[in-house]
Structures are given as C-alpha cells and as structure tokens.
Amino acid sequence: MTENWHQNFKSKNREALIAAAKVLFMKQSFLNVNIKDVCSEAGISRVTFYKHFQSMNELILEVQVEILKNMTGYVKNAAAADMSGKEMLASMLEAWVRYASLHLGYIKFVLLFDLHYEAYDSSKELKEQYDLFINREKEQHFLLDALQIGYMDGTLKPDPDPLNTAHFIFVSMMSLLQKMSLVSEADQETAQSDLRFAKRFVEMLVHHLST
Question: Which residues bind DNA (predicted)?
Fold first, then answer.
C-alpha cells in the first residue's frame, strides 16, 4: 500500500509539472520558459523536477506528445461504429476543426515545436524517442480506419495507398489549423473567416474522396 501511495504521489508530481508547463506555454513561447518558472507554477521544487525530467527539453517533448495524443483521441472519438466510412471521415475532420478552435494555443505550440525541433539542443535519445513516437503514430494513423471502411462500403473512392492519403490529410489539416492559431485574439473577423475556410476545406476534402 505504501509503495502504491508513493507511486501515485510521484505520478501526481509529474502530472503537475506537465500541467504547469502547458499553462506557461500557452501564455508565451516555450523558448522563454525555464525550469524555475515551471517549478514555481507547479509549486514543486527543482529537486523534484529532476526526479521526473532530465531537462527542459524533455518536458517540452512530453507536452508535445500529450497534446498530439489528446488531439488525435478527440478526433477519433467523433467516429461512431454505425457510421459509413464517409460519415466517419467527415465527422472526424469536423471534430478536428472544432478541437482547434477550442485549443488554438495547443495548435500553435505544435507549430512552434515543429519549427524549432531540429534546432533543439537536446540529446540524441530524446530525438530518437520522438521519432519513434511519430513513426508509430503514422503507421497506426488515426484516420486509417475511416478511410478503409469507406473503401470497403463504397462511400469513398478506392485507394491503393490509404496510409499515404491519411498522411496527406494530416499535413493539409494541420497546416490550415496552424494558420488559424496565429491570428490574434482581438482579430475576431479574421478568426471567424479562417474558421469558415477550415469548414469549407473539410467539405471539399470529403467531397473529393467520396464516390
């Protein structure tokens, strides 16, 4: 029991550090946040920080992975078992736009992470860890089931390489949503215009892939 309590306590400290980092990263570029800032926000000592993360880069990577997992999980949950492949794809892409509109800060973080990833002064092990995560997610792409079901039930055009199509959709959608994330909160007119554009893009994409 004592061992379980200790493990839960360690887990809560780790979660608190990640949550604190996310709060700070949404307020400013993660390049301007340091370990002291995160510890202060989380109410956790620097010594405890190093029990969970070897560096700030490791924490930044953890936040990136968590955001991507949460985003893709939200999108996947929009698909229901009784839907056709086309309905699944449309519902998932619409949910993706909805997620982005609710979490523009997260989308912007992903953009900044991607832009600075190669420039990180991080260890080879961290880069290998992230590359393994990305490759695994690509091979088990969250859009693949909807595409394959659509090919089988005839609601989507046959495709000899559905995994490549899933990758294309991901890159296209993220590029569009990342553009949305760069609009200032005060510029509501542009934000609403970008949102309408994203929804229109989803309609065009689904229409193009449909039979």
Answer: 34-53
